Amino acid sequence: MNEKAITCKGLTKRFGDFVAVDNISFEVNTGEIFGFLGANGAGKTTAMRMLCGLSYPTSGEAAVAGYDVFTKQESIKKNIGYMSQKFSLYENLTVKENIRFYGGIYGLTNGELKEKGEGLINKLGLQGESKKMVGELPLGWKQKLAFSVAIIHQPKIVFLDEPTGGVDPVTRRQFWDLIYEAADSGITVFVTTHYMDEAEYCNRISIMVDGRIDALDTPASLKQRYRAETMDEVFYALARGAKRSAD
Amino acid sequence: MPQQSSDAVILTNITKTYGETTAVKDLSFSVKHGELFGLIGPDGAGKSTIFRILTTLLLADAGVATVDGYDVVKDYREIRKRVGYMPGKFSLYQDLTVEENLHFFATLFGTTVKENYSMIKEIYEQIAPFKTRRAGKLSGGMKQKLALCCALIHRPEVLFLDEPTTGVDAVSRKEFWEMLQRLKQQGITIVVSTPYMDEADLCERIALMQSGSILSIDTPAAIKHAYPDELYAVKSANMHQLLKDIRQYASCYAFGEYLHVSGISENALAGYVKGHTDVIIKKVAPGIEDCFIRLLLKHE
Questions:
Q1: Least packed by Cβ within 10 Å: which of A92, B126, B142, B296?
Q2: What pTM was computed for the model?
Q3: Which CATH number fits domain A4-239: 3.40.50.720, 3.40.50.300, 1.10.357.120, 2.30.30.240?
């Protein structure tokens, strides 16, 4: 059962002469909350796209939920959930319609859709809002709903790309309650963030600099190694050496 | 007529609604000349609406506002000459080069890059190696620096920066704030908004905002000083369980490595965490984020 949720070895992606992801190797344990940090342009998004089955690596190897990123992209997509701040739900569909739409895409049956959909609405306290357009909901509710929809099919792994950007400090923490709950239920969580306090909530974190993974460990060990009080200082020590910057 | 003695920015009972949504609710505050003032709050707090009203791009439903002594409705032409504005969304011409964008904005304001180069020199030098590159092809950090140069090239009296550091990594954020501190030394008034609570401490005065209202307005030190309770940081081997256990009895929020607990005594707290191992409890000084959470809960 102690199978790895993600394994990757020498994973590389080149765009012409540019090495976006440079020979990265790491493993993520099942049920772990894994923080994937790095400066803008370090290569996080490119790496994440390969792991989600959206882009082929140039070289190296990787498996996600046991499926090979070269040969089993479609199986990967069925076994993961994905949510980002930039793209999550359809604003001009209602709460219920979004649940039905995404649940349908993830292959839930009508019976499962009804049961899971109702459970989700009750859990988030959205009973009064289920027929409202998602665009009318406050951002914090949208984010929580988007996360719950991303794991409605109980995927093996959920990828979260800056999920808490722009929300208030209370909502941000409520969002992490949902992340912990998902991890307790056995879902592996792979998350990126610019909030360094959130790095502390992860079991382990990696920090990417210029396409490479320059550090990977528990927050406590990293702080010890870099003689830092906070993760902010660790990040600064590593990322200020970066030679490139981009989006 | 402008009065030099009055504040750089004054809002009096400003309200703005979009359909049924009230973006800004009966808001009043002022910013002193030469001050670095922060609007701190999440998306939907009303920060961008305030910027758009002050830069004369949007009319308020009610209330009065002045910038550098000029009325935002009556004297909008005067205001547009005197303010620099960097909107939240990148708004330069993507098809023009770095250099062309800069010259375009200088010309628009009836000046030249040469005349005011000292204003932007330090920032522009960082992007000068790419001056023939189209703005659309720049990286996020470089776009941000170019946008700042374009907002400064006419030597504005007041600079409005709407979430300049959103989505920017921790290192670039730090560099950006260092640039702002140096600009401030040139005497320019800066109004900046951010959703990052840790940036509040870098402003001279701040307004904590939520849902179109100001929760608190003062210096960061005074806001922290006004926190009413003792605050404890606590951690144990199992943080998620610890959070659930303490939350039954007291206000408890995750703060990086520790949980922050308020509203109970240290003795009571020690009692509640008895079942845990590797427990550390220490008294801590509240930060702006602690204050924001406290005000948010009170507000709701």
A1: A92
A2: 0.90
A3: 3.40.50.300
